[in-house]
Amino acid sequence: MAQDLKRKRANEADARGVKKRQLSEEPDDEIVDHEGDDAESAGASGSGDDEPMDAEEDLGGEDEEWGGIDAVEEVEGKENHRAGGKPKKPPTGEEVRSIKEATELFRSSSFKLQIDALLPNVRPKESRKAPLERFLLALHECILSTPSVPPQHPLEAARALLSPEPAQTPKGKQAKDKGKAKAAPTPVPIAVPYPLPLPTEDANWKVAFEKPSEILLVGSWANQVSVKAKDGLPWGVDIAVEMPSELFQEKDYLNGRFFHKRAFYIAAIARHIASSSKLNVELSYESANGDPRLTNLVLRPKNDDSPNDFTKLHAQVRIIPVLPSSSPIPLSRLAPHRSNFRVHNADSSEDPAHENLPTPLYNTNNTSVCYAETASSSSACPEARDPGLRRCSGTIAYLGEPARLWRGKAAVLEMLAMGEEPADKVNTKLSSKRRPLGKGLSSYQLFKAALDFLARYDFANERIFVKAKDGHRFPAQDYYAHHDVAFVDSPSLVNLLAGVPLSSLAMLQHDAKRTLQTLDSSSPSVDPFTEVFLKENRDLFTRFDAIMHIGLSSATLRHPSIHATLEHGSPAKALFASLDQILRAGLGPRVKALSLLHPSSESRPLTQAHPSTPSTIYVGLVFEPEHAFRLVDHGPAASETESEASQQFRELWGDKAELRRFKDGRIVESVVWDVKTADEKAYIPVMVVKHLLSRHFHIADDAVQSWQPAFDALVRLPESISSVYQSARIPAGFKSAMTAFDDLVKTIKSFDKELPLAVLNVSPISEYLRYTSVFAPVALLPSSASLLPPCGQFLPTMEVVLEFERSARWPDDLAAIQKTKLAFLERIAAALMAAKEGTLARVVVADALNASPIQDQASLEIVIPQGWAFAARIWHDREATLLDRLINEGVNVPKALQADKPRTAREREDALEARELYVRRFVHAPRHHRAVAALCHRFSAFAGTVRLVKRWLAAHWLLRSHVAVEAVEILCAHVFVGGGGSETVPGSKERGFAAVVEFFKDWDWTAGIFVPLYEEKGAAAEAAKSSVVVTAGHKGVWTIATDADKDGHMWTANGPDNIVALRVKAIAKATWDYLQQGTESGALEVKTLLVHPVDDYDFVVQLEPSVLPRYTQNVVADPTAWARKGKFANLQRQDGTPVVRPGFDPAQLFLDDVKRVHADTLRLFYDPIGGDRFGAVWDPSLKQPRPFRVMNHFSSIPVPQESEKAKEKEKALVTVNESAVLSEILRMGAGLVKT
C-alpha cells in the first residue's frame, strides 16, 4: 500500500503538470470552462476556519493573472508580465461578452465568487494531511501483519475473541517466529458483530482470517470531493480491505453467512490493531444506516504528538472489508427476485413452496460489499475526470442532510453526465431515456440540474438506470417488482436507493424544490447563497408543519414477520420500514412529505456487537394545505367490498372504516374524523397518525407528544370562562363577528331617507374582522354579563369607516368638517336605534387633551342586539386637500391668496399630525385590512401565525405600546409572500410562528425590508422591491416598505426605537434557543415561551386582577381571581345589573395617563392582552445631577451638597425624584394598583 500511495502522489503531481501543459495546447476556436480547475487548485492549497485568507488569496491570484480569455494568450500574458512587468491589456469586446455570459450562468458574479470562496474553506487542509498519510502507511503494515486464524466454528471463534487469552498462533507461524523473545501484548476483548440470523451450534461452516489481498483508499477522500461535515463531525477516510476469496464458499450468500464471515474478519483486524503498540488509536464499531450487516471499524487518533498523530486534521479512518470481483459468490444469486433466506415463518398461511420470499434489500447489501472495488474505484467516479463535476459534488455534499441521504451522491452527477439507460421496451413507462447534459457546463449549472432532477423525478413510479457500457445485468422488471425505488449505478451492481424510504425521498424532493425556488428568487430580501449554504435548514419547527415525539418502549408490530426482520437487518429497521409504509398509506395526499427522524447510528465500543436501538423517534409532517384538513377519507365503492382494495382499506383503518352514503348518491368505504370546532381541523393529520400508531403498533396516545394543543391554548380563553359562553349561547368567533358586521352594513346602507347623503362603502379596519386578533371576538349582553366575573367582561370594539357619496355641500373648513361629522353620526345613531330595537348607539368624542380641533376625533359607538360592539368613523376625502393646503401655506400659494394672519408653527405641527392620522386611518388602514384578510383566505396558516406572534410580543410587553399590530401583520406576511417560494410557505401556525421568531432573530433592521403585501404588478412594483431606502427623522427604526408605503414608516413612525428593536432581537434569540433545546429533548413547555423576565426593569407595578376586564386573557391567569366564593355555585351575582362598556380597559387607560404625565421620565412596558403588571425603566440621564431649571419636564429633588462652600459656589443641582414619581403613580392608580 505504501507504494500505491507514493505512486498516487506522483500521479497527482504529474497530473497537475500535465494540466498546466495542456493549457497552452487548446485550439483557439474551442472555449473550455476552467473555473473548476481554478477552484480545484484553490482547494488544493487548502484553507480551514483558522486560515480565512487562503480563499481570498486564491481569488486575488486569479484576478492578478488575468490575461484574456484565450488560453494561449493567458499563459503568454503570465510569462510576459512576470518577466518584464508590462501593464496588462484590457479585455476585448468579445472577451467582455464571454465574461458576461459566464456571469449569467452563475446567476450573478457575486454568487460565483461566494461559491469559489466557500469550497476551499470546506475542504481539508493540505498542510494537515501529512500525518494522515504516514498513519495510513503504518496502518497498511499493521493490517498486513495481522496473524492468520485457522478455520473454526463461528461461535467458538467469537468466544475466543471475547476472552482475554491470546489466540493460538498457527504452527507454521510458530516455526518462523521461533527465537523471537518479544512478549506479545495482552489481547483486548472484542465482540464479533454477527448480524441476524445469528450462527447456531449446528452451523456446518467455519470462519477464518488471512491477510487481505489488497488495501485500497476509496470514497470521497480518495476522489478529493470530501467536504466539511456539519455538527463538528470528523472527515471520513474510507479504507477498503479486500478479503481473500479463499475464505468464502459459493453458498455464502445464504442466511447471512457472508456477513458473518465479514464480521469475524473485521473483529480479527480490530483485535490485532487494539493489541498493537504501533498505532495509538481509539477503536469502535459503526454500522452504516444502523444496519448490523454493514458494520465497519472506525479508528480515531489519540493526541500524542507523534508523527502519525492526525488529530489536528479532525478525521477518522473507516475500515470496510470487501470482496474482489473474483468472489466465489455468483452474481446471479444476488438478483432482486432471489430469495436467500432459508427460514420458516410459523405464522405464515402460505403454501410451503412459497414460504421463502424475495430478499432484494439483503441481496443489495451483498452486492454493495462484495463488489465495492468496482463501484468505488476512482476510475469509475465521474468527479475524478471532470473538475466541474468535482466542484458540483462538493457543493451538493455541503448541503448536509439531503445529500447524506444518498449512499452514493456521485450517482446523480454520473447519470447527468453519462445519461440514462433505455430500459425494457415491454414496459412503456420505461421507454423514456434521459440524455446526458454534455460537457463544458459550470458547476453551478450542474448543481441546478441535479436539484431539478431530484425535484421532478417520480421515484415512486419510475426506476433509474445509469447508462452502462454493456447494458444492465438484471431485467428492469425485477426492480419494478421487488424494489419500491431503484437507482442502478453504471456498473449495474448496486441499487443505490435500496432501503431508502419513499418518505425520505419525498422529503428530499421537497428540499430540492425549496432550494431551487430560493436560487431563482428575485426578492431583494432573500440572499440565495446564505439561504442555501449558510443557513441551518434542519430545525424541526421551521422545517415541518407538525412534529410528534413518539416513545417506542411499547411498540410492537401488529403482524410481526421474521422475513421482514431478516430482510431489513434488525427489528428496529423493520419497525421503521413498517412505520413509514403505514403512515404514508394513511396520510396520503394530506402531506407533501413525511419524515421519520431518529438518532443516526453512532460509534459503539468493540464489546458491543449490535448498534443501539432508539427509544424515541420524531415524525415530521409537511402539509399539503389543499387536502391536509379534510374531514373524510374516501375508499373503494360498496360494490367492491370483496376486492383486494377494500380489504386493504379496512385493514389499514380498522373499526374507523365504515360504509357511508354521500349527497351525490355514492356509497363508499369512508373514514370520518370528528372535530368540534374549526380550529380542531388543524389536528386531523396528527389524529390520523395517532390512530395508525395505536392500531398497527400498539402505541398509546399518551406516548405521542404533539405541541399543537399547547400552542392553541395560548389563543383561547380558560375552560371555566369559555364554558360560560357555550352554556349561555353567547355569540363568539370570527364568523359570527363577520355576520354581525354584514348585517350592520345592510342596515346602514338602507338609511337613504334618513341621511342627506347615501353611504357608499363601509370598510372594516379592525383586527377582529380580519381573523388576526389574538383572541376570537365575543359578544356581550347585559343579561349574559351577569354570568361572567368582572375580570372577564371585556367587550372588544370593532372599528369601521363610513364613506359617503361626494357632495359640494361639505364645508371648506377643517374644524367645521369635524362638526359636520358629529351631525352625521348623531343622525345615524338615531336611525339605528329606531330601525332595530335593542340597538345602543352613542357619539363618542376623543379626549380634548390629545386631539386638536382639525383632527378626526368623533366616532359612533354601536352595540347591536346580538351584543357586538362597533366604532364607526366618517371618511371625507376633502380633508386631505385642506390639510395639504394648511401645511404648504406660503410655499406654493400666491401671495394674494395667502391668509392675512400667518399660521404659527404650532398650527402647522397640528396639521402635520392630523394629516398623518388621516392617511393612516382612512387611506392605509382599509387597504391594509383588505390585503391581510386576503392573505388569511389564501394561506390557511397565516391568521394563526399572526395571532401567535402577537400573543408572543404582547406577553413580552412590546405589542401596541411599542410595536403596532399592523407592523406585526406585515412582518408575518413576509414569511408567506417574501419571495422564498411556495415550498417555504408554512402550512401550520406553529411553523409560521417559528419562522417569524427566526426572522426576528436574524433580521438586520438597519437595512429595512420590502414586503409585497399588495402584489402590485409592473415596473413600479419591481422598482420598489429593488430599493428600500432607510430614512432618518423617525422615532421608529424599523423600515417596512410595501407597494403602498415606499417610505416604510406608516406603521413604525412612532416605534419601535433602537432600544425596543434590540430587545425584540434578544427575546427572539432566547425564544429560538429554547424552542430548539426543548424540541430535541422532548421537554418543551410552550407556555414558558411567553413567561416574561422582569429583572431588567427598575420597578414593576402590580395591578389588582379582579378589576381588570381582560384579566382572563392573561398568559398565567389565576382562576381564583374569578372563582365564585358563595355558598351556591349556580347563584347569580348580586352586584346589580352589569353595565356593558365596549372597549373599556382600565389598565390601558391608566398606562396611557402615566405615559402622558411621565413621558420624559419613564419608559413603560405592558402586556395589553390581559396583563396585570407593567414594568418601567428610568431615563438614565435624569439620574445624573443637573442644574435646576424651570419647566424641566420631570419631578426633581435637590442633590445634597457635601459642604457649605459647595452650596454657595455652585448652583443647586437636582436629580429625578423617584419616590415622588412612585407616589404619584400610586395616587393615579388608586383602586387599581395593588403594589
Automatic annotation (TrEMBL):
What family does the database annotate?
Belongs to the NRAP family.
Q: Name one GO biological process term.
A: tRNA export from nucleus
What organism does the UniProt record list as the source? Dentipellis fragilis
Q: Name one GO molecular function term.
A: RNA binding
Here the segments flagged for biased composition (Acidic residues) are 25-40, 48-74
Q: This chain belongs to which protein, by name?
A: U3 small nucleolar RNA-associated protein 22
The main location is nucleus
> What keywords is this UniProt entry annotated with?
Nucleus, Ribonucleoprotein, Ribosome biogenesis, RNA-binding, rRNA processing
User: Known Pfam families for this protein?
Assistant: Nrap, Nrap_D2, Nrap_D3, Nrap_D4, Nrap_D5, Nrap_D6
Annotated localization: Nucleus, Nucleolus
